[in-house]
Amino acid sequence: MRFDEAYSGNVFIGSHPSYEESKVVIYGMPMDWTVSYRPGSRFGPGNIRKVSIGLEEYSPYLDREMSEVKYYDAGDIPLPFGNAQKSLDMIEEYVDKLLDAGKFPLGMGGEHLVSWPVIKAMYKKYPNLAVIHMDAHTDLRTEYEGEPLSHSTPIRKAADLIGAENIYSFGIRSGMKEEFEWAKENGMQIAKFEVLEPLKKVLPTLSGRPVYVTIDIDVLDPAHAPGTGTVDAGGITSKELLASIHEIANSDVQVVGCDLVEVAPVYDHSEQTSNTASKLIREMLLGWCK
């Protein structure tokens, strides 16, 4: 279950050597074929792995060490360059296999469209699935300039599949007026501008439910994460995002999978964005994979 032919040689710090013995599988989805502004997120997974060597393996937030969770870094899925549909099919097939094997999937993107096939796979296993979505953008378009496979469409596709009332979006500060109107008309909850406080109100209503969490790094203000394809001013701080991850960890929701997407290292030569992403993944691992 490791993609050796396309693997760069880096692994996320602390990765267990055995797939069979690991509960969590980290995998990369290096796709940016449909972006509308700046490409480069296909290099996100590799760079997040590379900088993870600088992480402390202990979380003072959660009082846990990474050695307490057995996780396996499977490398990047070798997606065919430019072929969006085949790439999405390959991602869905891979996550199907992870779920069949009883693994917790933790994905790294890649553009946000890669979350769509993962949610499809999760919904097949968990028919009462809810999705928590943290992002600057609504991602509720049905198409972008005539193309239905676009990084601006994954949450709309997910809403059409599992029901808009089962999607909870936080930190949203950008989108077409029609997207916000569609969400309101169809019972989807969108918390504009903030994440932590509205999240606290929603989590008790999701108690005991299987939840998939997808985080677009651009939910952060560009001051905290400049290395992304579609920057948008006015975002939250890294401190608030960390606190939100911990709020989920301390709740009664059953996180069954997650991803972190849209890290584009080429736009951040300081590697601040990748370093932030690697710390977020550490907290997701220790907080949600118990």
UniProtKB/TrEMBL annotation:
Cofactors, names only: Mn(2+)
Statement: the UniProt record of this protein carries the keyword Secreted: no
Keywords: Hydrolase, Manganese, Metal-binding, Polyamine biosynthesis, Putrescine biosynthesis, Spermidine biosynthesis
GO molecular function: agmatinase activity; metal ion binding
Top-level taxon: Bacteria
Pathway as given in its UniProt record: Amine and polyamine biosynthesis; putrescine biosynthesis via agmatine pathway; putrescine from agmatine: step 1/1
PROSITE patterns: ARGINASE_1 (PS01053), ARGINASE_2 (PS51409)
UniProt xrefs under InterPro entries: Agmatinase-rel, Ureohydrolase, Ureohydrolase_dom_sf, Ureohydrolase_Mn_BS
Enzyme Commission code: 3.5.3.11
Transmembrane segments: none
Broad enzyme group: hydrolase
Gene3D superfamilies: Ureohydrolase domain (3.40.800.10)
Pfam families hit by this protein: Arginase
Binding residues annotated for Mn(2+), in chain numbering: 112, 135, 137, 139, 216, 218
Catalytic activity: agmatine + H2O = urea + putrescine
Cofactor binding, per record: Binds 2 manganese ions per subunit.
A biological process from GO: putrescine biosynthetic process from arginine, via agmatine
Family: Belongs to the arginase family. Agmatinase subfamily.
Record function comment: Catalyzes the formation of putrescine from agmatine.
Protein name: Agmatinase
Organism field: Lederbergia citri
